[in-house]
Design brief:
488 residues; 8-stranded mixed β-sheet; 4-stranded antiparallel β-sheet; 42% helix; globular
Amino acid sequence: MGHSATKYEQVESRIAGLIDCGTLRGGQRIPSVRAMAVQMRVSVMTVLQGYRRLEDRGLIESRPKSGYFVRPELMRRVSQPALPPPPQVDPIRLSSPSVRIPDLAAALLLQKERPNLLPLGAGVPSAQLLPGEALSVRLARAVRSCPDEASRYAPGIGLQRLREQLALRMLDSGCSLGPDELLVTVGATEALSVALQAVAEPGDVVAVESPGYLGFYAALARLHLRTVEVQSDPTTGLSLPVLERLLSRHDRVRALVLCSTNSNPTGSTMPERDKQALVEICRRAGVIIVEDDTFGDVTFTDRRACSLKSLDPENVVYIGSLSKVLSPGCRIGWVAGGRHHGKLVDCHLATVLAAPTSTQMAVASFLADGAMVHHLRRLGRHCNDSAALMRRAIAGALPKGTKVTNPGGGLFLWVELPEGCDSCSLMRAAVTRGFSVASGRLFSSGKHYGRFLRLNTAIVWSETVEKAFRALGSLVRDQLKGSSASGG
């Protein structure tokens, strides 16, 4: 650094230099914030700013209650060999049958109860990547400082200060909404349920992106709605030509449910021009959009993709959730329904009445003091690095013909296996080897995607993970040998 370097840049330069010369090695704890402040005669806030810049560069990481550590060499410099190409679009028939819950869904839920199973197929981050301690501190503080408020029902639409913070968070996605336009729900599951109840009646036809989140099908089935699966590209999301073909044939489609940014399970994000075209197509056809934006804030770049809600505030019912990226146990979601807001509130009050007050208080505090911004930035960095490591592991362990996505955010990779593979059998066999994967069949009501897998990048990389990929490669090769021997 030159003479004009700021004090926090000097902190950054000192630690970076110690890492470059080998004085500080991967996994080693760096000086505490207070110790560095004393050493360099600067404020604690200056050191924190320098350390956060080092985190942004991927050189160090913070660990709750332990301090800051040098990131392992493997995570700092992820090599990029010749990686598998992206998966292809899997064409499916357009039809509107009753919804069927994939028969593997129960098996996936049971896997979550096995603590020793490596969760390569899970839908939430590993506990080590979540700010459980910081959130519990805020929960205890909220209950201790306002015991009367914590023990009462929150207002029907949620605590005012939480809704204010959620409205501020939505600015990043391009939305300008007031807190009274939001309804706090018990996670995204309830948000999806009340959204569908507000916009559709039993027997109505609802279009769903395919592959799509398993929870979409569960909600549609429970509400006795019919569905048409609209194929999506693993990279660019929902196919607009297929949707237009559907709407030209079928004038009874009531709503469209999709995740347009960092989709579950593929990680796809629709380009902004396609999002603009989508909202216009649906507006002309009288189709209400239900947008699940659960993973939109987990981005690998500095720019967060815009939401569909930002492009059409009245016709898009927006669903957000903190459960998957902050704490699965907190069960805090929200919905912004535009012109459907009143119906959403009625459905909410008639079912759960209110989300837990103490949890709302703690989450509001976590958002208000900036901790959420820091956590999401760290989670995005980790998932980006982990995704690169997974693609490298797939390239080395799985046979030729395997394809994998390269998303710009979210928690998931979508893997296409070679012809002759069955991901349902692999899902069951993986459990016997100590790890989980999620079969592509889980993400369709029509038993599609039998050669696909969803993988979870929000895990802590280790030799155990490396071994799991080698085991997965072995299982895939065994399947291919069996398929070849049987003439399949």
